[in-house]
Amino acid sequence: CHERPLRVFPSMEMPVRARMMANRLTEPAARLLVERGVRVVEGGYSWCSDPRLTLPAAIRMTEAQIDVLLASIACPTQAIFATPAQPYFPAALRDHRVAMMRDARLHLLPG
After folding, report:
1. CA–CA distance, 28 with 41 (Å, rounded to integer)
2. SS3 of residue 24 by DSSP
């Protein structure tokens, strides 16, 4: 968990609503994430996460580099994504990346 103090929510409902709004999630999907991502603290609940998850990626790739990488995948690939698509990874980009793979099947799951 974080070393610095984080906001304390008096109930689970506030972080659930925040996840729903920020990520366009259903209430059950948001609740699952919140239940796994908060801890009980004095006064309510606080986010708990591995600070390493917020570090920048070791390698930054351009879209052209990603296309070359995906096109080089020779084996059959099952691409699994959530629906609806998230704002940071829109459906058009997802579909383009799946199309770059030689033998990929797209499977969409709600949430």
Report:
1. 23
2. coil
Q: How many CB atoms lie within 10 A of CB 111?
A: 14
Q: For the chain, give every domain's residue range.
A: 13-53, 57-110
Dihedral sign computed on CA atoms, order 40, 42, 43, 46: negative
Rg, the chain, Cα only: 18
pLDDT of residue 15: 93
> pLDDT tens-digit profile of 65-95?
999 999 999 999 999 999 999 888 999 999 9
Residue for token digits 């793979």?
A: 101
User: Is the pLDDT score of 56 beyond 90?
Assistant: no
Structure tokens at 101: 């793979």
Q: Which alpha helices (H) appear in 1-111, and where do they start and end?
A: 13-23, 27-37, 63-71, 91-100
CB 83 within 8 A of CB 48: no
